[in-house]
Amino acid sequence: MELDEKKYLYLLILIPIVVCVFLFNMYWKRRKQLEFGDLEMVKRLSPEKSVFKPVLKIVVILLALTCLIIGLVNPKIGTKMETVKREGIDIVFAVDVSKSMLAEDVVPSRLDKSKQLVSQIINNLGSDRIGIVAYAGSAFPVLPITSDYSVAKMFLQSMSPDMVSSQGTSLDEAIRLSATYFDEKSKTSKLLILISDGEDHSEGATAAAEEANKIGMKIITIGVGTEKGGTIPLKENGVVRGYQKDQNGETVITKLNQEGLKTIAKATKGGYVYGGSTKEVLEYVKNALNNIQKTEFEATQMAEFQSQFQWFIGFAFLLLFLDIFLLERKTNWIKELDLFNEKK
């Protein structure tokens, strides 16, 4: 069994509060009766008033309140177990987080566009496992291979140039780190989707891609940016304070290098796609995935859970409905039985 909305459990504190209010009310009534006169005289003036009924009413209300809270928590009970076999491939997303990715020649920025592309690709995946790498002047592991897409997207949105201390763009570092995500002995197909503006400040990206090809890794590169290029804004609290300048004090213009990205993809018999159109990227990746052999890599026992809130909500309303008919007068047939000493 599992609880769907545990946050509502704190409402159970209402139960002791209601009990305390009820007891205080009983105490207050008793004090007022003592002020009015002798208790035995008061009872004779109201012979039909039941001592048991108020207790019964509060018990019914407490049970109804408890059922309503449990209904809000929504307990789920596993109904059956089944074996689930999953087929897919292992995919690593290597996202360029260098400062050049802050350029806004692509709306809203190259980095934000890259995040959007990766997020949309993840939304269209089936049972593939994914990992994430961030890179600039060096590469940084963000998320190991996982099948939890929601966690992957959460980590994806937190990526920024501040993650990597070494600036620049080292595509070879990204490729080599991504290669370590894959098990070389595994028969599962290996795919690296590398997103960048292609401005490589290192040497050896093609060599790194050729090494990756030897372990059966295919690379798809996605180019983000424009060949015309753009400036790199320096922001403080979301406000542009200036633009990145080089050693000579000139404003840096960063441009998309498609040829470098195409060369990397070609080394692994992969492919290149321009990231300007999300629809075209998704279509390209979809076709590429359809041509990659899927491998069965997981077989797990899963329990199907069904919500049970409706039973508790229904019982709560039934109790509240019955409470309407629970008057504080003595019940004749119970009075005849004298179960609760009501003949007095």
TrEMBL record:
It comes from the Bacteria. InterPro entries: Aerotolerance_reg_N, UPF0353/GerABKA_families, VWF_A, vWFA_dom_sf. The keyword Membrane applies. This is BatB protein. SMART domains: VWA (SM00327). Keywords: Cell membrane, Membrane, Transmembrane, Transmembrane helix. The chain crosses the membrane at residues 7-28, 54-73, 309-327. Residues 90-289 form the VWFA domain. The keyword Lyase does not apply. It holds the Pfam family BatA. PANTHER family: LEUCINE ZIPPER PROTEIN 4, SPORE GERMINATION PROTEIN.
